[in-house]
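Postdoc handover notes: sequence design on the structure in folder B. Input tokens:
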């Protein structure tokens, strides 16, 4: 079964007539929007018609730009040194600066209207884009002047965007020196990190030590990248009038601080339960001090060595997605069978996994590094969940297809839950134990490790206010965050001081604190899945509706569709209690083995 994706739905090559035509079209459309904005946004006359015209023009520009950028970015993600891809990414980023002036003009003009709600009621097109327009108007107060916005956009391409590219190149091309079965090798970083799931304890420890040693080759460059990006974020947030980078992230996420605090409160309360799980796992793996070393966090437990060929993974996922809904199963089947997934590990390919929804063509693309473990199957299910979210948005207007970070993880984690629970129901006792442990392990990452990342990023921003941090300071911050989150569950002398290097989430100026959204997604999805078990098929249609409106409602309003109050700590406690029950079951089963 082919493990590489096909991008022909976008373009067959960078030299194809279609790719070149779209570049010309993009340049032309941008010029048209600039000219139109300069001529029409100086008065409030014919406001409805002007808003309609802008929406039509900006949609066309963003769709063309998105298609070109997706092709370049997806190509570069699996071929880090592809010069044509890297050049096109840079060209698009530079060209995007041309849109800053008309976008600023429109946003400020929109914000100056004192009757926007009445205007929206006069047009079907405006009603369709009500949330988009209202949000744009409200955020106009954070806009700088036209000249300042253009300067910031241009400097970003040689600032944070350049640092992001450098970090991607460093981690994508880093080769780890490691001895495997007596033979000295140089392996890509994702391959070595995936050894954390191997059954052989010596392999796991050896990979961990080799990984940490490898980071020394890039630690100074990575620290410079991180300092550059976070320094820019702090500066720009202050210029725009945000209270902090977190304040900006929450507003961009359509989420309030009350919701975040309620969730974090429940997460902190749950930590002792997870520590109990880690200690029991340490006991199972023979660690006499009762504490788990970092390199054994993902160690498989039990006698079941669950391995899946890629074809087996495909069949397993499609079958069990079918237990939830036919629409979900059909989507997954199309993704596998139509080569929407790039799962093969290879040098020059980015680590980890992601899903890229292509609204303009009604498809998605998924990148993963598949090695055959059950965890890899779970990762594929997770990314397919993101793709299914995009599938539910296909009929929505393009400008309503962009949803905020916290809700982004809901469908993905619900799909993980489907796979784990469906597999548990049909597994042998040993397999069931392994699946249960894998599911708890995943939850521990999304609650405990994500909490450590939130603590790290909070401390990083606080320290970066006063100047750049050295490699040692970054390592100290990461170790302290891990100690505070993992507590007595882990051996505090064997942690991972370089997690700030290998996690790409820290290296985007546009997506800060991309940690708590995973916890939101897990706990929201757990709560939704509990509702599905109660209501069955009646739940599915309402769930699909929820996903379809995530681009045009606030987080609280999306949750309200399912009668969920996300500002209440009790909702989060109830979801965490479900994981707590699984942990108690695991401890009991482990004690009887």
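Designed sequence:
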């Amino acid at each position: 079964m082919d493990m590489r994706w096909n991008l022909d739905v976008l373009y067959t090559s960078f030299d194809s007539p279609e790719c070149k035509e779209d570049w010309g079209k993009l340049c032309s459309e941008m010029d048209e929007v600039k000219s139109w904005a300069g001529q029409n946004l100086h008065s409030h006359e014919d406001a409805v018609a002007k808003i309609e015209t802008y929406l039509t023009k900006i949609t066309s520009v963003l769709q063309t730009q998105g298609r070109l950028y997706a092709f370049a970015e997806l190509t570069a993600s699996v071929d880090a040194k592809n010069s044509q891809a890297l050049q096109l990414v840079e060209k698009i980023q530079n060209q995007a600066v041309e849109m800053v002036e008309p976008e600023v003009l429109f946003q400020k003009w929109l914000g100056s209207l004192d009757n926007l709600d009445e205007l929206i009621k006069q047009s079907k097109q405006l009603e369709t884009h009500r949330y988009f327009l209202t949000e744009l108007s409200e955020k106009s107060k954070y806009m700088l002047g036209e000249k300042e916005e253009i300067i910031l956009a241009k400097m970003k391409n040689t600032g944070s965007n350049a640092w992001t590219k450098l970090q991607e190149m460093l981690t994508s091309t880093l080769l780890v020196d490691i001895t495997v079965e007596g033979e000295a090798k140089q392996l890509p970083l994702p391959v070595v990190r995936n050894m954390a799931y191997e059954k052989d304890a010596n392999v796991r420890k050896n990979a961990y030590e080799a990984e940490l040693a490898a980071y020394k080759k890039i630690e100074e460059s990575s620290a410079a990248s991180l300092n550059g990006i976070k320094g820019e974020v702090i500066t720009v947030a202050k210029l725009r009038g945000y209270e902090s980078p977190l304040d900006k992230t929450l507003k961009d996420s359509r989420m309030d601080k009350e919701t975040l605090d309620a969730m974090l409160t429940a997460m902190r309360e749950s930590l002792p339960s997870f520590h109990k799980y880690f200690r029991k796992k340490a006991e199972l793996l023979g660690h006499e001090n009762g504490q788990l070393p970092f390199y054994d966090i993902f160690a498989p437990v039990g006698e079941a060595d669950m391995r899946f060929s890629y074809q087996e993974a495909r069949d397993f996922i499609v079958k069990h997605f079918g237990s939830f809904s036919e629409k979900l199963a059909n989507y997954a089947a199309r993704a596998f069978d139509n080569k929407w997934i790039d799962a093969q590990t290879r040098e020059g390919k980015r680590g980890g996994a992601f899903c890229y929804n292509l609204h303009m063509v009604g498809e998605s693309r998924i990148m993963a590094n598949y090695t055959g473990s059950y965890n890899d199957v779970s990762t594929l299910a997770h990314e397919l969940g993101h793709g299914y979210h995009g599938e539910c948005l296909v009929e929505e207007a393009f400008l309503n297809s962009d949803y905020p970070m916290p809700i982004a993880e809901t469908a993905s984690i619900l799909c993980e839950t489907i796979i784990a629970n469906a597999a548990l129901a049909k597994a042998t006792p040993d397999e069931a134990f392994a699946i249960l442990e894998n599911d708890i392990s995943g939850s521990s990452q999304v609650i405990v490790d994500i909490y450590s990342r939130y603590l790290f990023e909070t401390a990083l921003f606080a320290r970066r206010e006063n100047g750049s941090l050295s490699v040692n300071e970054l390592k100290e911050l990461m170790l302290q965050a891990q100690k505070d989150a993992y507590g007595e569950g882990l051996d505090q002398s064997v942690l991972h001081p370089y997690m700030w290097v290998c996690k790409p989430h820290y290296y985007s100026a546009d997506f800060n604190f991309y940690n708590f959204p995973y916890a939101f997604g897990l706990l929201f999805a757990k709560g939704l899945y509990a509702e599905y078990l109660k209501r069955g098929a009646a739940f599915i249609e309402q769930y699909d509706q929820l996903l379809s409106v995530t681009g045009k409602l606030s987080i609280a309003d999306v949750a309200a569709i399912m009668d969920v109050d996300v500002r209440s700590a009790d909702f989060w406690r109830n979801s965490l209690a479900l994981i707590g029950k699984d942990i108690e079951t695991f401890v009991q089963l482990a004690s009887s083995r």
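Context for whoever picks this up: The first helix runs from residue 17 to 40. Don't rerun without checking with the PI first.
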